[in-house]
């Protein structure tokens, strides 16, 4: 029985040694994969940083374009408001003009009445 235990013990030591060798091989593969992953991440970071810088520049340019468009729009709104105020002032002046010269309307009405009466008499004479 002692021989059987010795054989099993040797077998156990050989199995443990094989398991340790397998563990070392697996750990080497894991270290290699982690190293590759680290290289890939570094490459990704190296390529991403310029893209982010370009994106930042594009964002700044877009902000400038939007700001200038807003400034132009504000200028257009001010111009429209100025034109609107001038038309408002002009129409209010023309209303006051009629109120200051009421005789002008009377003269126009009398002329229209005379023309109508003249046309009526001419039609009446023709018949």
Task: Give your account of this protein's structure.
There is one protein chain. By secondary structure, the chain is mainly alpha-helical. The chain has one domain. 98% of the residues lie in helices and 0% in strands. It contains two helices and no strands. It starts with a helix and ends with a helix. The mean pLDDT is 87.
Name the features.
mainly alpha, 127 residues
Characterize the largest beta sheet: strand count, sense, and whether it forms a barrel: none
Q: What gross morphology would you assign?
A: rod-shaped
Could you report the average pLDDT, rounded to the nearest whole number?
Answer: 87
Could you list the spans in which at least 5 consecutive residues all have pLDDT below 50? none
What Rg do the Cα atoms give?
51 Å
Structural class, judged by helices and strands?
mainly alpha
Which band does the percent of strand residues land in?
under 5%
Gap between N and C termini: 159 Å
- Helicity range: over 70%
**How many helices?**
2
The arrangement of helices and strands along the chain is HH
Would you count the extended β strands for me? 0
């Amino acid at each position: 029985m002692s021989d059987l235990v010795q054989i099993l013990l040797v077998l156990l030591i050989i199995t443990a040694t094989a398991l340790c060798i397998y563990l070392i091989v697996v750990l080497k593969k894991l270290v290699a994969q982690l190293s590759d992953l680290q290289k890939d991440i570094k490459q990704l970071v190296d390529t991403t940083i310029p893209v982010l810088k370009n994106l930042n520049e594009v964002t700044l340019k877009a902000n400038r374009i939007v700001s200038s468009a807003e400034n132009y729009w504000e200028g257009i709104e001010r111009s429209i408001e100025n034109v609107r105020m001038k038309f408002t002032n002009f129409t209010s002046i023309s209303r006051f003009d009629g109120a200051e010269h009421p005789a002008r309307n009377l003269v126009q009405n009398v002329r229209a009445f005379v023309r109508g009466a003249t046309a009526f008499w001419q039609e009446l004479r023709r018949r």
